[in-house]
Specification:
Layout lengths: L2 H6 L6 H15 L1 H24 L2 H15 L2 H16 L3 H31 L1 H16 L6 H8 L3 H12 L1 H12 L3 H9 L4 H34 L8 H10 L3 H30 L1
Helix pairs in contact: 3-6, 3-9, 4-5, 5-14, 6-7, 6-9, 6-10, 6-12, 6-13, 7-10, 8-9, 9-12, 10-12, 12-14, 13-14
Length: 284
Amino acid sequence: MSKEATMTNIPRIPLGAGVEAALDWMTSTFAWATRAFSTVVQAGINSLENLLALFPPLILVGLFAALAWKLTGRKLAIFTALGLLFIWNIGLWSPTLATIALVVVATAIAVALGLPLGILAALNDTFYSIIKPILDFMQTMPAFVYLIPAIPFFGLGQTSAVFATVIFSIPPTIRLTALGIRQIDKELIEASDAFGTTTNQKLFKVQMPLALPTIMAGVNQTIMLALSMVVIAAMIGAGGLGSEVWRAIQRLRPGQGFEAGVAVVIIAMILDRMSASIASKKQE
């Protein structure tokens, strides 16, 4: 008997069917939560997009350049101004604003969820041992897979994109928050205990300030992952620069796709340098 014939006699593990059944149950059971999440997220995205659209492009370029100057210095300010002017010149200003809005909303949610989970993982060994393999699994999962559960919950659109982006980008914040707190010298913790500090005082006045550079490194990684996922999420209706890339692929327009890709790189470099500068200043 061949090996293939032998394998056919072994019952197949119903992993796919189980996942579909779980998603169907969660979709019906938590429909109220998904509707509330969708309403809040979509309102946040629309508000931020409308706020950015209130400013003429040249004024907004000046504001971003001024922010870059304050955070890092003249070099990034010049790069920010030239990069954003280039994006405006090639007609990708509106998609860029939509991408920035999506990244800001997704990053804010990921950080708001990731910081408490990271703190809990740092302070509780049992929770850390449970969440560590989960984070390993999440960070090795292909990015496209995160789009699958978003669609049953929210359908196509920006809310699905934000949901997938949050799940994809949250692990660095959790992991590096826990790592930063857990790596603090035990002598410092013992000294704070000797002065009679409470748990909250020790956390917010000793552990968090000392771990802040590592935490900010996690936030920086979260921002970069959020930007990359927002581009990929154009496949499920995210809009923004990712949609320009996806449209160029569908219509076989390499020039248009290259322009959108360069715009994504410019935004990524600006966000990376700004967030890295904040982390370095916190370390000082």
